[in-house]
């Protein structure tokens, strides 16, 4: 639903109080999206029940659904400066540490509730059985892509981290993607155009396409064979990557369990190499200090 268009279309039918809500949402959608029904009502001078009835009036099952829909719209539109302003309004004089960590815990909980178990298991199987594995993630999502690539590269031979320094270089890296391969694309609002383009290109190859993104409205979802949804609602100008990272962590564990014998053999060899070349500190090293 195009919420703002729906509000404009139904505006003449609204009561005086509902028009106040509509005017505020149309002018300040970025702030309204993160308000409770009570706070929105107090801000515009109407009762909480009027706000709830307004949500029903424009086609939602309740105010929480309206709030989530507004958040989905503005996550793709807010600039970094606007994100900072929204965060200031949301947290106010409260504890930043407590507020941000509490929000992150809620994101993990909601990710667990919303991620498809079937897509999760089939995505892990596709990765485990792929000829080659490509991992694509740009901007803040590049940290997630590097995390996934690091562990997949330890488990399997042919894993490629696709970097997005330029369009031509990007497509050269994925030009050989085929039907026996798996492509993991990671992007969250504001979505990276280069990741979306690369993902669309890879999808046309017939490969298994695994989208790690914020839900079915993401531009990555339309090309996905498997959709892994993770909550990444913003914490100021900083993208919250806690839930996506936790989801990738679970995916890596599932992939390793699907190929347990092969992975165990690989890590036995790695442990021998790490020990021989003193890659990690151990008790003997510390004793000699």
Q: Could you characterize the architecture of this molecule?
A:
The structure is a single chain. The longest helix is centred in the middle third of the chain and has 19 residues, at 96-114. The chain has 15 helices and 5 strands. Helices cover 59% and strands 8% of the residues. The chain has a 5-stranded parallel β-sheet with strand order 2-1-3-4-5, sandwiched between helices. Helix 8 crosses helix 13. The model has no long low-confidence stretch (mean pLDDT 85). Helix 12 links the parallel strand 3 and strand 4. It has helices at residues 3-10, 16-27, 29-32, 37-44, 48-57, 63-75, 80-91, 96-114, 117-128, 142-155, 167-174, 193-203, 242-258, 260-276, 283-287; strands at residues 133-137, 159-162, 182-186, 208-213, 226-229. It is elongated and about 75 Å long. It has 289 residues and is of the alpha/beta class.
Label this structure with key terms.
289 residues; alpha/beta; five-stranded parallel β-sheet; 5 strands; 15 helices
Short description:
This protein has 15 helices and five strands. The protein has 289 residues and is an alpha/beta fold.
């Amino acid at each position: 639903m195009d919420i703002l268009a729906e509000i404009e279309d139904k505006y003449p039918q609204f009561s005086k109080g509902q028009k106040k809500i509509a005017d505020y949402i149309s002018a300040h959608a970025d702030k309204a999206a993160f308000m409770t029904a009570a706070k929105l009502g107090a801000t515009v001078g109407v009762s909480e029940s009027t706000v709830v009835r307004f949500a029903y009036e424009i086609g939602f099952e309740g105010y929480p659904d309206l709030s989530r829909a507004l958040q989905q719209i503005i996550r793709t539109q807010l600039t970094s400066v606007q994100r900072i302003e929204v965060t200031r309004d949301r947290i106010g004089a409260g504890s930043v540490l407590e507020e941000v960590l509490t929000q992150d815990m809620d994101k993990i909980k909601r990710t667990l509730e919303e991620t498809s178990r079937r897509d999760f298991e089939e995505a892990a199987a596709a990765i485990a059985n792929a000829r080659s594995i490509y991992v694509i993630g740009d901007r803040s999502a590049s940290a997630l892509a590097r995390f996934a690539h690091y562990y997949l590269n330890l488990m399997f031979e042919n894993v490629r981290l696709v970097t997005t320094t330029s369009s031509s270089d990007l497509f050269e890296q994925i030009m050989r993607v085929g039907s026996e391969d798996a492509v993991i694309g990671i992007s969250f609002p504001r979505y990276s155009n280069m990741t979306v383009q690369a993902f669309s290109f890879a999808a046309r190859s017939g490969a298994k396409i695994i989208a790690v993104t914020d839900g079915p409205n993401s531009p990555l979802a339309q090309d996905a064979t498997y959709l892994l949804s993770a909550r990444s609602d913003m914490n100021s100008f900083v993208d919250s990557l806690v839930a996506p990272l936790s989801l990738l962590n679970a995916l890596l564990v599932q992939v390793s369990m699907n190929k347990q014998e092969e992975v165990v053999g690989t890590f036995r060899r790695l442990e021998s190499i790490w020990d021989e070349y003193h890659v990690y500190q151990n008790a003997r090293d510390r004793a000699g200090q």
